[in-house]
TrEMBL record:
GO terms for molecular function: alkaline phosphatase activity. Residues 1-20 form the signal peptide. Keywords: Hydrolase, Phosphoprotein, Signal. Pfam families: Alk_phosphatase. This is Alkaline phosphatase. It comes from Kaistella montana. It is an enzyme of class 3 (hydrolase). SUPFAM superfamilies: Alkaline phosphatase-like (SSF53649), PLC-like phosphodiesterases (SSF51695). Belongs to the alkaline phosphatase family.
């Protein structure tokens, strides 16, 4: 009964998960796994290897005679399990190859293999199943003497006759014949050429190709998958399959290089008075995220031109990893708080934000975001609620706010009840004479760059700055690139890169404005890092970046802070996120 339940669970997982995408993973020495056959099947391996030894008329599964165990026969460990899988209909959607590596004399052992398989008619001539003989094999000229369900592993690049090729299922070679590469970094050019030549030759024969003895690690899997090896040899079939299967999602090729703005540095770091502050927050934009955008954008960003750089610690009062609500509240109010809290302290008391404080000092204020206006980061600069999901209550506070400018998504939540003057596009925004304006980017959620948002963020920043400048008052503007965070949560490298480059275009507009309007301080940072993101591989020439993710949530990694303009040196160093508020207020008081 217990065995039956295990098989049912395996079948449920197999049908719902493994067949989602076919991968070419070879479970090397599968009999050494904790659960032979079933584990590899569930992991999505399409090739499973068993070493067999013939002793006293019995086929055992073992690497050598010293490791033989009486109960580990080829029938017990594999054939009976394959029969069960076939009876349960688990071999109908993805071809399965059983690679039988013969360790004893070829002809007598192979004769016993054939005899064992012939005991089970369901395994013979099954289009979803193939038995491939590797290791000690008869000569190719004898392949034709074996039943149709027996195929062979050709371990050479030497040509065969047409009749012999018909009995070959794949070509396998030891990678150590071509390279001593240990899987770290990349193989040297001469070794790479030899391996590529071997793969090309095998492909010309029209057969799948496998290297054995490859380094069993992600770098190696990635390299050989991209090189065109059909079966990746591994002792970690589940990890290997999920890694290879996710390569396309984690790898992005940037086809459009964004123009870089080179700052003038005329007042950068000077002691001139600060009149205007532009705070740009890349949601989830950690150092790896910035690096990915830079590397995919021809190795450069406007952000990477800046000279004043620091690091921010982001933890909230109740969590190692902050969320956007607590992170933005810390920067907006100068007080750390609990995750999910908007503009209130850990006890729920209202905290005044930078826009609210500066409004009393004669400043105009604004928010531009690629999120909805009630999103966690923008709302921390005008609202005060103990829960970031209280969108209705946050929306009411937006309507009562003294913000002069709002550009965001979420129009549908404010139809017929908005006292802001609505403008339809950046051109109207730049020319507006109204005291309070709103430009909606969408009726609901704002689309991503990959889904067609184009360059509306940078256009809105340029227009918004012109609008604020026309009022002849000092101003504070918060700009959020909200969807870098979305890429981290979705483990989408392409989203991170495109949103990061889009955010950099907004940064360029802010830095240009600062160069044209002395007394403007630009600060660029993030509320937190998302995804535990890293960059294991890529191609600089082709603007290709492969990302890797440790999580689909936020992390506690410090985030960079960049500054440009008067008193930019105040923002270098390592400090807590709530110090951003105090540093802004300090430079404005000078």
């Amino acid at each position: 009964m217990k065995t039956k339940r295990i098989l049912i669970l395996l079948m449920m997982g197999f049908c719902g998960f493994v067949f989602s995408q076919q991968t070419r993973v070879h479970s090397h020495n599968d009999y050494l796994q904790k659960v032979p056959f079933w584990g590899a099947l569930y992991a999505g391996a399409t090739s499973i290897e068993a070493d067999v030894i013939l002793k006293d008329g019995q086929l055992y599964v073992a690497h050598d005679e010293k490791s033989l165990l009486k109960e580990r026969t080829f029938d017990n460990l594999y054939l009976s399990s394959i029969v069960k899988a076939a009876e349960l209909g688990m071999l109908t959607k993805s071809p399965l190859q059983i690679l039988i590596d013969i360790k004893t004399e070829s002809k007598s052992t192979l004769a016993e293999v054939v005899k064992e398989i012939e005991k089970y008619p369901i395994l013979q001539n099954n289009p979803s199943l193939s038995f491939v003989i590797s290791g000690n094999r008869p000569s190719p000229s004898e392949y034709k003497n074996y039943p149709a369900f027996i195929m062979f592993d050709h371990q050479s690049l030497s040509p065969l006759t047409t009749e012999e090729w018909e009995k070959v299922a794949l070509i396998s070679l030891s990678v150590k014949t071509f390279t001593k590469w240990n899987g770290k970094g990349a193989p040297i050019a001469t070794d790479e050429k030899q391996m590529n030549d071997a793969i090309s030759t095998a492909k010309k024969y029209g057969k799948p190709f496998r290297f054995w003895a490859i380094p069993d690690a992600k770098s190696s899997w990635e390299y050989f998958a991209r090189a065109g090896v059909n079966f990746i040899n591994t002792d970690q079939p589940f990890l290997c399959r999920t890694y290879i299967e996710g390569l396309s999602r984690r790898t992005y090729t940037n086809s459009k290089i964004s123009e870089i703005y080179h700052p003038a540095f005329a007042t950068d770091g000077s002691i001139a008075p600060v009149k205007n502050v532009i705070l740009l927050i890349g949601d989830g934009n950690g150092l790896a995220q910035i690096s990915s955008s830079l590397l995919a954008n021809g190795g450069n960003l406007t952000l990477s031109q800046l000279k004043h750089i620091g690091l921010i610690k982001t933890s909230s009062t109740d969590n190692f990893s902050t969320d956007s609500a607590a992170g933005a509240t810390a920067m907006a109010t100068g007080k750390k708080t609990r995750n999910r809290y908007i503009g209130v302290d850990p006890e729920g008391n209202v905290l005044a934000s930078i826009p609210e404080i500066l409004k009393t000092k004669g400043y105009n204020t604004g928010i531009i975001t690629t999120d909805e206006i009630t999103g966690a980061t923008p709302s921390a600069f005008y609202a005060h609620q103990p829960e970031r999901d209280m969108a209705k209550e946050i929306g009411k506070e937006f309507l009562k706010s003294t913000l002069n400018l709002a550009v965001a998504g979420g129009k549908n939540s404010f139809i017929g009840q908005n006292h802001f003057v609505e403008v339809r596009n950046p051109s109207e925004l730049a020319k507006s004479k109204a005291e309070q304006v709103v430009m909606w980017l969408s009726e609901g959620s704002v689309p991503s760059v990959l889904n067609g948002r184009k360059s509306i963020l940078s256009e809105s920043v340029k227009a918004g700055l012109n609008f604020l400048q026309s009022k002849n008052k000092p101003f504070f503007l918060m700009v959020e690139g909200a969807q870098i965070d979305s890429g981290g949560h979705a483990n989408s490298t392409g989203t991170i890169i495109t949103e990061g480059i889009d955010f950099d275009q907004a940064i360029a507009e802010a830095v240009k404005f600062a160069d044209q309007n002395s007394g403007t301080l630009v600060i660029i940072t993030a509320d937190h890092e998302t995804g535990g993101f890293s960059l294991p591989h890529g191609n600089l020439k082709n603007n290709v970046v492969e990302g890797a993710f440790e999580t689909d949530d936020h992390s506690g990694i410090m985030v960079p802070i960049f500054s440009y303009g008067p008193h930019a040196d105040e923002f270098i160093g390592i400090y807590e996120n709530h110090e951003v508020f105090h540093k802004i207020m300090k430079v404005l008081a000078k």
